[in-house]
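Task: encode each sequence below as structure tokens.

Item 1
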Amino acid sequence: MKKDIYILGIETSCDETAAAIVKNGREIVANVVASQIESHKRFGGVVPEIASRHHVEQITIVIEEALRRADLTMETIDGIAVTEGPGLVGALLIGVNAAKALAFASQKPLVPVHHIAGHIYANRLVTEFTFPLLALVVSGGHTELVYMKEHGHYEVIGETRDDAAGEAYDKVARTLHMPYPGGPHIDRLAHEGKPTIDLPRAWLEEGSYDFSFSGLKSAVINTVHNAEQRGETIAPEDLAASFQASVVDVLVRKTQRAVAEYGVKQLLVAGGVAANKGLRGALEAAFANTAVELVIPPLSLCTDNAAMIAAAGSIMYEKGVRADLDLNAIPGLEIETYNDDE
């Protein structure tokens, strides 16, 4: 019988300290996340220095807790997968150095993982991949369309030119005096209103799969400020609904076009904004009567976690990808760096 492979994943790219153990790349054995939202909420966003300090305090605790929940020891672990980028450099360094120390002490292979690859592979914890496929990655720092012809091979066919969708959500939420993180609050409010306010949609040049949400964000802010200067009141739920309609319209229509052009069999949705009910519903409606399988992970796997890093790391481990103990954090790491032919 084939031996089971256990990969320990470590994720500290932003404000979640996480450790998880995944069996054979598909089965979550343990998944531990220490959130920092309460610490950053009063600042209206993530403060890098505070995030790093919390990672230092929590990293050993979450790793030990993951092993305890899995009822495993480091002797049973086959490899240690860690996010090397992209992300906040100080935060990344905590996870990378913890993984290197653990790999050295236990003499286990060290496997580098791209954070966005992790988000994509969160879907493999739900269902097996069918190639070729397309991944729509929508998070606080990233909005991308990634084409995959096989495991571990990534081709970015579209990306954000300015604000990512999640970033725009947070900035609009701040304009409406909502707490951080703003995405869930905007999503909830949008379902209470109607998209009655005309807001722009950035389609960019013909044929482009890139995204731009900076103009939309500015339009929302200007709409609010202009109304205040005129002494008018705008229903926040209608503004939220109008903003969300613009974001979702662009995401869904560009994704539909890419799916058709690239002839993919599967569409994966990944990243924190994949938890957005408006986006999930629109994608489900758009692909309901098509031959393309739409895969959206559960809410617990949309936001940053280490199970997704272990899942992506399992593929890297099987491909024989290893990192030396000079592995460093790379805050601007490109996902295509991981391709075999690069």
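Item 2
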Amino acid sequence: MIAKQNIQFQKLIAVTGVILFAIKLLAWYLTHSLSVLTDALESIVNVITGFIGLYSLYLSARPRDQNHPYGHGKVEFVSAAIEGTMITITGLIIIYKAISGFNHPNEIHEVDYGIILVSITAVINYFLGFSAVQQGKKNNSAALMATGKHLQSDTYTTLGIVLGLTLIYFTDLLWLDNAMAIVFAGIIIFTGFRIIRSSLAGIMDESDTEQLKKVVELLQEKRKENWIDLHNLRLIKFGRTLHLDCHLTVPWYLNVNEAHQEVDSVEKLVRDKFGESVELFIHTDGCVDFSCKVCTKSDCTVRQHAFVKRIDWTLDNAYQNNKHRLD
């Protein structure tokens, strides 16, 4: 259901991108403005990446198979990387054309019509981009979030171009067209770098510390007596799916069914908080001699040492691949 929602939304983005590109081409045809052409060229990227994003969401929604045991979700990061690269290249091309245009500025025509048409595209892009980011956050989709941020940055660029056209309309200073194109091409390049950085982090399995911290805080808050220790906690993101694995120390005398019940409790707690898109792999360890000093279990009949102090779980100590101990 979530994957289908993402795909339907991406279809809307792709189709809207084609329509907005046509509107911007009309605005450029009427005005002959380099800054409007800049916006139109950037919209070509919107169209291409819209369909790339659609294809990536289709792939990421496919179930895992023998060749892809963790599913196809990482294609979303590849899609985002391609999108960021294309945005950056477009920005560089725009700057080159704008600098060259200072020596031979274009004569601007029909500025009023250009302002109206470009303003319409800005409003549509902003609301579409905002909705894409919210949908991406809700469904853990890197592709949708990348597309949404791109559309929002396109809005800011377009608004700047509208401002530039307005100044040209009242002042007749044609060099402002090139100047505005350079400024907002810089914004495009910065956005492209941010998208590339984010996508590479996902491809390289960079730890999502904010998400990990929330998981640790949740388990610490709802901690049970049988959950003696939590360590080797890791989180990897594959598209909209979060894969979480950890080691949970429980009393050594629990049988297999009892230990599994503790694992089920942890899984239910995490899924109730973060949704069904979380996939957990929990390895149970039996407690050892030094665990007694940090164990709060009050009815333990085989305790070897008196309880001394409970170790609270934090992002730093839950990440370590060692059972926690006082000495």
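Check on item 2: The beta strands are 229-238, 241-250, 278-286. The radius of gyration is 27 Å.
End of task.
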